[in-house]
Write a structure and sequence with these properties.
- By secondary structure, the chain is an alpha/beta fold.
- It contains 8 helices and 10 strands.
- It has helices at about 10-20, 70-75, 85-105, 130-140, 145-160, 195-205, 225-230, 235-240; strands at about 25-35, 45-50, 55-60, 105-110, 160-165, 175, 180-185, 215-220, 240-245, 255.
- The protein has a 6-stranded mixed β-sheet with strand order 5-6-7-8-9-10. It has a 4-stranded mixed β-sheet with strand order 1-2-3-4.
- Helix 6 (about 195-205) links the parallel strand 7 and strand 8 (about 215-220).
- The longest helix is centred in the middle third of the chain and has 18 residues, at about 85-105.
- It is globular and about 70 Å long.
- It starts with 7 loop residues before the first helix and ends with a strand.
- About 25% of the residues are buried.
Protein backbone atom coordinates (compact mmCIF):
# COMPACT_ATOMS: atom_id res chain seq x y z
CA UNK A 1 0.00 0.00 0.00
CA UNK A 2 1.41 3.39 -0.99
CA UNK A 3 2.04 6.23 1.40
CA UNK A 4 -0.94 8.23 0.10
CA UNK A 5 -3.21 5.17 0.50
CA UNK A 6 -2.37 5.09 4.23
CA UNK A 7 -2.58 8.85 4.74
CA UNK A 8 -5.13 10.74 6.82
CA UNK A 9 -6.43 12.20 3.57
CA UNK A 10 -7.15 8.73 2.18
CA UNK A 11 -8.79 7.73 5.46
CA UNK A 12 -11.08 10.78 5.40
CA UNK A 13 -11.97 10.33 1.71
CA UNK A 14 -12.77 6.67 2.36
CA UNK A 15 -15.14 7.58 5.20
CA UNK A 16 -16.79 10.22 3.03
CA UNK A 17 -17.38 7.62 0.33
CA UNK A 18 -19.04 5.35 2.89
CA UNK A 19 -21.29 8.18 4.08
CA UNK A 20 -22.16 9.23 0.52
CA UNK A 21 -22.47 5.64 -0.78
CA UNK A 22 -20.47 6.56 -3.85
CA UNK A 23 -16.85 5.88 -4.76
CA UNK A 24 -14.70 8.98 -4.95
CA UNK A 25 -12.60 10.07 -7.90
CA UNK A 26 -9.40 10.88 -6.04
CA UNK A 27 -6.87 13.46 -7.20
CA UNK A 28 -9.36 14.41 -9.90
CA UNK A 29 -8.47 17.24 -12.29
CA UNK A 30 -10.92 19.58 -14.02
CA UNK A 31 -9.97 21.34 -17.24
CA UNK A 32 -11.01 24.68 -15.78
CA UNK A 33 -9.00 24.44 -12.55
CA UNK A 34 -5.41 25.31 -13.42
CA UNK A 35 -2.20 26.47 -11.76
CA UNK A 36 -0.04 29.39 -12.81
CA UNK A 37 1.94 29.07 -16.06
CA UNK A 38 5.48 27.68 -15.82
CA UNK A 39 8.51 28.88 -17.78
CA UNK A 40 7.14 27.24 -20.92
CA UNK A 41 3.82 29.06 -20.46
CA UNK A 42 2.02 25.76 -19.90
CA UNK A 43 -0.56 25.55 -17.13
CA UNK A 44 -0.98 22.34 -15.15
CA UNK A 45 -4.45 21.28 -14.03
CA UNK A 46 -4.74 21.38 -10.24
CA UNK A 47 -5.97 18.20 -8.52
CA UNK A 48 -8.73 18.11 -5.94
CA UNK A 49 -8.54 15.58 -3.13
CA UNK A 50 -11.82 13.88 -4.01
CA UNK A 51 -14.80 14.34 -6.31
CA UNK A 52 -18.15 12.53 -6.20
CA UNK A 53 -19.94 13.11 -9.55
CA UNK A 54 -23.26 11.79 -8.30
CA UNK A 55 -23.30 14.34 -5.50
CA UNK A 56 -21.62 17.11 -7.52
CA UNK A 57 -19.34 17.39 -4.50
CA UNK A 58 -15.64 18.13 -4.03
CA UNK A 59 -13.93 17.53 -0.69
CA UNK A 60 -10.59 19.02 0.26
CA UNK A 61 -8.86 17.64 3.35
CA UNK A 62 -6.55 20.35 4.63
CA UNK A 63 -3.89 19.38 7.13
CA UNK A 64 -2.11 21.90 9.35
CA UNK A 65 0.29 23.11 6.66
CA UNK A 66 -2.66 24.64 4.79
CA UNK A 67 -3.43 27.00 7.68
CA UNK A 68 -0.10 27.67 9.38
CA UNK A 69 3.55 28.00 8.45
CA UNK A 70 5.41 24.67 8.37
CA UNK A 71 8.98 25.13 7.03
CA UNK A 72 9.29 21.44 6.11
CA UNK A 73 6.38 21.78 3.68
CA UNK A 74 6.70 25.45 2.74
CA UNK A 75 10.33 25.38 1.48
CA UNK A 76 10.68 29.17 2.12
CA UNK A 77 14.06 29.29 0.36
CA UNK A 78 12.65 28.04 -2.96
CA UNK A 79 10.39 29.95 -5.32
CA UNK A 80 7.65 28.23 -7.32
CA UNK A 81 6.33 29.12 -10.80
CA UNK A 82 4.00 31.57 -9.01
CA UNK A 83 7.01 33.58 -7.81
CA UNK A 84 6.36 32.74 -4.17
CA UNK A 85 7.45 29.91 -1.88
CA UNK A 86 5.44 26.70 -1.67
CA UNK A 87 3.43 27.73 1.41
CA UNK A 88 2.23 30.93 -0.27
CA UNK A 89 1.49 29.06 -3.47
CA UNK A 90 -0.53 26.48 -1.52
CA UNK A 91 -2.67 29.28 -0.05
CA UNK A 92 -3.03 30.84 -3.51
CA UNK A 93 -4.20 27.58 -5.05
CA UNK A 94 -6.52 26.81 -2.13
CA UNK A 95 -8.19 30.18 -2.69
CA UNK A 96 -8.45 29.41 -6.41
CA UNK A 97 -10.22 26.13 -5.66
CA UNK A 98 -12.60 27.93 -3.29
CA UNK A 99 -13.51 30.40 -6.04
CA UNK A 100 -13.60 28.16 -9.11
CA UNK A 101 -15.30 25.03 -7.80
CA UNK A 102 -18.57 26.72 -6.69
CA UNK A 103 -18.42 28.94 -9.80
CA UNK A 104 -18.68 25.76 -11.90
CA UNK A 105 -21.77 24.51 -10.11
CA UNK A 106 -20.11 22.10 -7.68
CA UNK A 107 -20.30 22.06 -3.90
CA UNK A 108 -16.99 22.37 -2.06
CA UNK A 109 -16.57 21.05 1.48
CA UNK A 110 -13.30 21.71 3.30
CA UNK A 111 -12.48 19.34 6.16
CA UNK A 112 -9.70 19.94 8.70
CA UNK A 113 -8.23 17.72 11.44
CA UNK A 114 -10.01 19.79 14.11
CA UNK A 115 -13.35 18.76 12.58
CA UNK A 116 -12.58 15.14 13.49
CA UNK A 117 -10.95 13.24 16.37
CA UNK A 118 -7.36 14.52 16.15
CA UNK A 119 -4.47 15.19 18.50
CA UNK A 120 -2.80 18.57 19.04
CA UNK A 121 -0.44 18.00 16.11
CA UNK A 122 -3.33 17.47 13.70
CA UNK A 123 -2.92 13.71 13.42
CA UNK A 124 -6.16 11.76 13.30
CA UNK A 125 -6.74 9.14 15.97
CA UNK A 126 -8.93 7.29 13.42
CA UNK A 127 -11.91 6.83 15.69
CA UNK A 128 -14.10 5.64 12.83
CA UNK A 129 -17.46 5.82 14.60
CA UNK A 130 -16.90 9.37 15.89
CA UNK A 131 -15.38 10.54 12.61
CA UNK A 132 -18.25 9.12 10.53
CA UNK A 133 -20.78 10.84 12.78
CA UNK A 134 -18.94 14.15 12.33
CA UNK A 135 -18.71 13.69 8.56
CA UNK A 136 -22.43 12.96 8.24
CA UNK A 137 -23.11 16.40 9.70
CA UNK A 138 -20.40 18.11 7.64
CA UNK A 139 -21.55 16.55 4.36
CA UNK A 140 -25.29 16.97 4.97
CA UNK A 141 -27.06 18.97 2.31
CA UNK A 142 -28.97 22.14 3.09
CA UNK A 143 -32.33 20.64 2.14
CA UNK A 144 -33.95 17.25 1.69
CA UNK A 145 -34.54 18.03 -1.97
CA UNK A 146 -30.78 18.34 -2.39
CA UNK A 147 -30.38 14.94 -0.70
CA UNK A 148 -33.00 13.30 -2.94
CA UNK A 149 -31.42 14.79 -6.07
CA UNK A 150 -27.90 13.71 -5.07
CA UNK A 151 -28.96 10.15 -4.26
CA UNK A 152 -30.87 9.80 -7.51
CA UNK A 153 -28.01 11.25 -9.56
CA UNK A 154 -25.63 8.72 -8.02
CA UNK A 155 -28.11 5.93 -8.79
CA UNK A 156 -28.39 7.07 -12.41
CA UNK A 157 -24.61 6.91 -12.83
CA UNK A 158 -24.72 3.31 -11.64
CA UNK A 159 -27.40 2.55 -14.24
CA UNK A 160 -25.25 3.85 -17.10
CA UNK A 161 -26.80 7.32 -17.37
CA UNK A 162 -24.71 10.47 -17.76
CA UNK A 163 -26.06 13.65 -16.12
CA UNK A 164 -26.03 16.63 -18.49
CA UNK A 165 -26.86 20.31 -18.30
CA UNK A 166 -30.68 20.54 -18.40
CA UNK A 167 -32.31 21.75 -21.60
CA UNK A 168 -34.77 23.70 -19.45
CA UNK A 169 -33.03 25.68 -16.71
CA UNK A 170 -35.82 24.86 -14.25
CA UNK A 171 -35.30 21.09 -14.61
CA UNK A 172 -33.81 19.53 -11.48
CA UNK A 173 -31.88 16.77 -13.23
CA UNK A 174 -31.40 15.59 -16.83
CA UNK A 175 -29.40 12.60 -18.05
CA UNK A 176 -28.67 10.70 -21.27
CA UNK A 177 -27.90 7.06 -22.03
CA UNK A 178 -27.21 6.39 -25.68
CA UNK A 179 -30.21 7.82 -27.56
CA UNK A 180 -32.33 7.93 -24.41
CA UNK A 181 -32.94 11.10 -22.41
CA UNK A 182 -34.41 11.36 -18.91
CA UNK A 183 -35.87 14.58 -17.52
CA UNK A 184 -36.48 14.59 -13.76
CA UNK A 185 -38.38 16.63 -11.22
CA UNK A 186 -37.21 16.04 -7.63
CA UNK A 187 -38.90 16.89 -4.34
CA UNK A 188 -37.85 16.67 -0.72
CA UNK A 189 -39.81 16.09 2.48
CA UNK A 190 -42.83 18.35 2.86
CA UNK A 191 -45.71 18.85 5.27
CA UNK A 192 -48.15 19.27 2.35
CA UNK A 193 -47.58 16.00 0.54
CA UNK A 194 -50.75 15.92 -1.52
CA UNK A 195 -50.55 19.54 -2.68
CA UNK A 196 -46.83 19.29 -3.40
CA UNK A 197 -47.35 16.04 -5.33
CA UNK A 198 -49.86 17.82 -7.58
CA UNK A 199 -47.43 20.72 -8.02
CA UNK A 200 -44.63 18.28 -8.94
CA UNK A 201 -46.80 16.69 -11.65
CA UNK A 202 -47.66 20.13 -13.02
CA UNK A 203 -44.00 21.18 -13.09
CA UNK A 204 -42.99 18.01 -14.94
CA UNK A 205 -45.86 18.39 -17.43
CA UNK A 206 -44.44 21.78 -18.41
CA UNK A 207 -41.11 20.09 -19.23
CA UNK A 208 -42.77 17.73 -21.74
CA UNK A 209 -41.84 19.66 -24.87
CA UNK A 210 -40.24 16.75 -26.76
CA UNK A 211 -42.24 14.29 -28.87
CA UNK A 212 -39.26 11.95 -29.16
CA UNK A 213 -40.40 8.56 -27.76
CA UNK A 214 -36.88 8.03 -26.36
CA UNK A 215 -37.34 10.99 -24.03
CA UNK A 216 -38.66 9.79 -20.67
CA UNK A 217 -39.71 11.67 -17.56
CA UNK A 218 -39.35 10.93 -13.87
CA UNK A 219 -40.68 12.20 -10.58
CA UNK A 220 -38.24 11.56 -7.74
CA UNK A 221 -39.57 11.85 -4.19
CA UNK A 222 -38.74 10.77 -0.63
CA UNK A 223 -40.55 7.84 0.96
CA UNK A 224 -42.86 10.20 2.86
CA UNK A 225 -44.36 11.44 -0.45
CA UNK A 226 -44.47 8.14 -2.37
CA UNK A 227 -48.12 7.39 -1.50
CA UNK A 228 -49.29 10.86 -2.56
CA UNK A 229 -47.35 10.68 -5.84
CA UNK A 230 -48.82 7.23 -6.61
CA UNK A 231 -52.38 8.62 -6.59
CA UNK A 232 -52.11 9.36 -10.30
CA UNK A 233 -53.04 6.04 -11.98
CA UNK A 234 -50.18 4.04 -13.45
CA UNK A 235 -51.79 3.86 -16.93
CA UNK A 236 -51.83 7.68 -17.05
CA UNK A 237 -48.17 7.79 -16.05
CA UNK A 238 -47.40 5.26 -18.80
CA UNK A 239 -49.17 7.41 -21.42
CA UNK A 240 -47.00 10.33 -20.30
CA UNK A 241 -43.79 8.23 -20.46
CA UNK A 242 -43.35 9.03 -16.79
CA UNK A 243 -41.83 6.91 -14.04
CA UNK A 244 -41.88 7.56 -10.31
CA UNK A 245 -38.90 6.84 -8.08
CA UNK A 246 -38.78 6.74 -4.31
CA UNK A 247 -35.65 7.72 -2.39
CA UNK A 248 -35.76 6.11 1.04
CA UNK A 249 -34.55 7.67 4.27
CA UNK A 250 -31.47 5.45 4.12
CA UNK A 251 -30.70 6.66 0.57
CA UNK A 252 -31.88 3.73 -1.52
CA UNK A 253 -33.72 4.21 -4.82
CA UNK A 254 -36.86 2.25 -5.70
CA UNK A 255 -38.92 2.51 -8.85
CA UNK A 256 -42.63 2.45 -8.04
CA UNK A 257 -44.49 -0.31 -9.89
CA UNK A 258 -46.21 0.74 -13.11
Amino acid sequence: MGRRDDSDEAYVVGLCSEVLREAALTQHRFDWLQGDPGQSGRRVKLPVDAYWPGHQLVVEYRELQHDQAVPHFDKPDRLTVSGVHRGEQRALYDARREAEIPAHGLRLVVIRPADLDADGRGRLRRNKEADQAALRKILARDSDEDRVTDVFRTWLLGQGWTPVDPTDRFTDLEAVRGDERLICEAKGRTSERGIDADIAYGQLLRRMTSQNPLTQYALVVPSSSAKAIARVPSHIRALLRMDVYEVTDDDLVRRLPA
